[in-house]
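Reopening this ticket.

The earlier resolution said the output was attached, but the attachment link was broken on my side. Pasting everything inline this time so it's all in one place.
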Amino acid sequence: MDIQVHINNVRGSQVAAKITGTFNIDGKPFKFQAIAFGRIGGHNIGAKISKTVEKDLIKLGYDVDAVINELQQKLVRGDITLPEGLTKDSFADG
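Inline output:
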């Protein structure tokens, strides 16, 4: 499964931040929201998608849980693109 993740906005701090963005799969963009937590126990990210996005992914033949898992893994690994002016240093431990 090839997912590209683009971050639109990050609000918060290195301890906890709200992330909004899109991920592309099969050339189609889908919106997501996520909460990123750091510090105790390491980094963890919980991503959510809307029911509409879930239905669209199912129509494309994707397992929704597998897509969310891959999305979360890419966010944790930093395998993302960022808008101009936003750097990983502004919201991630270096």
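Reporter confirms the inline version is readable. Residues 4-79 form one domain. The chain has one domain: 4-79.
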